[in-house]
Every structure is written in C-alpha cells, then in structure tokens.
Inverse folding.
C-alpha cells in the first residue's frame, strides 16, 4: 500500500461521501483478522496505516512473563528488560514485524473492505433517501414477480409489492408502470427493503393531493379517509376559505379530477364528503349519497342514531352494510341507522 492507494482512496471518499478514517480503520481491522488467521507468528497484532503516506506497520503484541511457554504470544521478563528496563511481568510488549506476503495480503484485504464499505454506504444512502419518503406515492416499473410479490423498480432499489396489497381489479405484468404507496422502509442486513401498497388508504389521500391543486396548496384539507380497496372509499374534506367549495374542488371540472383517480384505482367508487365540526352534520354527510332526516348523538357511547326516509334505508346501509361501515370508519363514531317507519314503531 502506498501514496497512490491513499490518493485513489481520497477520490472514492469524495465521490461516494464515505469517511476516509472509517474506511482505513476497517482495513486495519480486516488486516488484523487476516494476520491472526494466516500468520501463525503473529497471533496477537496491531496494525496501523498512515493516513497520508499509506505506510503499513504491523506490531506483534506479547505478554511479559517470567518463563515463556508460548513464544508467539509471550516474551520473557529478562528479554523485555534487555529492550527496556521498565517492563514488569503482566505488561504488554510490542515489536514491529514484517508478516510474510504483507503487500499481497494488504492489497487483497483493502479491495475486499472497500467493496464492502462502498456497498454499505450505497445501502445507507438508499435507506436515508427512502426513510424520509414513507407515506409518499411513487411511480415504478414492475421488474419481476415471485409466488407472493411483485418487485417494483424505484431507481436504485426495488420495492416489494405483496399480492395482498393489490387491488382486486389489478392485472399487472412485467414492464407495467404502476403507482404505489410506501408503507414502510426497513434497513435489513441484505439492504433496504421498501414495502409498497396499492390498497392502503394513504394511496387514495396522496392521489387527491396530486390531482387537486387546492389540496396541494393547503386551501382544502383532507380530514379523514375510509377505504375498502377496489370497491368503495369515502374521503372527508374541509376548505379553509369560505369561497372555495372543498367537494367541488375534488370533483373538478366535469368530474375530471375524481375520474382520473377512479381510473387509477381501477373503477373504485369514491364518495367525497364535506367535513363539519358539528358531528350531527358530519355523520349525515358521511352517509352520502343517502338522504338523512335526523341524527341523534350519544356522547358517552360515541354513537349516532340516524333516521333516514324509508326509501333510503338500503342506500344508507349499502350492499352488505358497506356504506354504513365506511361512514363509521370515516367519522370514528358508531352509527345506528333506522328508517322513519322503524323509528315510529320503536316509539309506539
């Protein structure tokens, strides 16, 4: 190892943004392991590499003892005191040694360590880039699939999209571009793992943020999302400016904005609900498209009893209870729905 090596290492450090001291320290530790493994005459060694010149020095460390029983690891007190009269039994004595094939071992070890450290640095850079992008939406290309997952190219790393996180209507194949939501970023030993979803409620929220300028600018705020992926979703929105209609902003001219999102979600039905601080109004709105006659609130039970016209009962409840279930998820309140006839019978 020489000055040319140090200069080359400086270039790598500059290009890749890794620490030179960390790199050289790792090479020193790797050399120690190599010498311990391959150099029987140097079982206990210390290695230093000059950060400027690249000069390698190897020091054998030996325990000062009265009588030597292991020449590779011990030195007699008499011999040690010939070198320095201050040595005592139990001290560590060091002498510089020149292990066999030092240059070849050093070069080989340095290459291995640098390759490993650059790989680790690349993994860390990818992880640090993506850890700040959890809950974001990205467009990637399907590279391959196995028995359980699609693998989506996201630049320098492939994200994992489990089949369980797909929409029921998704018909994806290799080479397709697909919008995905980042649910989690893990830094595993084999590298960063980016977990993706197309069924997460966050995907719907991010799609509205991309499609609706008023949401992106903060004028309109998404207050809550309830989703049964691929079937139906509800999204509650609120405007911070009286003159801006939050529902109309999300629907867009001729319904174009919401239709673009519906198309991306393979026909998933989306109800856009006006949020209200008045829970009665909010619950009534959440049952859209059903009309509501009245809402009674039971604070202690966090339950809302809703009366709807007789001809609106099935619409309010929805197929297999889906509309009522999504409304409850959206508002965070239990919702008990009765028709006007049912409510009158209970009173009588």
């Amino acid at each position: 190892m020489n000055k040319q090596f140090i200069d080359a290492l400086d270039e790598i450090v500059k290009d890749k943004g890794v620490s030179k001291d960390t790199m050289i320290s790792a090479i020193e530790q790797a050399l120690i392991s190599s010498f311990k493994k391959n150099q029987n005459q140097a079982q206990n060694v210390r290695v230093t590499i000059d950060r400027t010149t690249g000069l390698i020095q190897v020091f054998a460390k030996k325990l000062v003892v009265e009588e030597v029983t292991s020449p590779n690891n011990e030195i007699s007190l008499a011999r040690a005191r010939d070198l320095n009269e201050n040595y005592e039994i139990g001290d560590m004595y060091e002498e510089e040694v020149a292990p066999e094939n030092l240059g070849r071992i050093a070069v080989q070890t340095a290459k291995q360590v640098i390759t490993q450290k650059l790989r680790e640095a690349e993994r860390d850079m990818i992880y640090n880039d993506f850890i700040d992008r959890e809950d974001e939406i990205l467009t990637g290309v399907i590279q391959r699939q196995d028995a359980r997952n699609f693998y989506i190219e996201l630049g320098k790393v492939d994200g994992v999209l489990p089949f369980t996180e797909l929409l029921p209507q998704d018909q994806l194949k290799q080479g397709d571009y697909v919008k995905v939501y980042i649910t989690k970023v893990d830094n595993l030993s084999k590298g960063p793992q980016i977990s993706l979803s197309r069924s997460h409620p966050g995907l719907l929220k991010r799609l509205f943020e991309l499609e609706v300028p008023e949401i992106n600018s903060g004028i309109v705020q998404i207050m809550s999302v309830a989703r049964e992926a691929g079937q139906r979703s509800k999204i509650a929105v609120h405007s911070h400016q009286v003159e801006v209609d939050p529902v109309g902003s999300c629907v867009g001219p001729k319904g174009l904005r919401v239709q673009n999102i519906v198309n991306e979600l393979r026909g998933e039905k989306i109800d856009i609900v006006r949020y209200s601080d008045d829970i009665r109004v909010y619950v009534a709105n959440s049952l859209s498209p059903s009309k509501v006659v009245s809402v009674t609130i039971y604070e202690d039970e966090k339950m809302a009893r809703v009366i709807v016209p007789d001809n609106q009962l099935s619409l309010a409840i929805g197929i297999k209870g889906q509309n009522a279930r999504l409304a409850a998820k959206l508002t965070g309140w239990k919702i008990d729905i009765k028709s006007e006839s049912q409510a009158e019978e209970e009173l009588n």
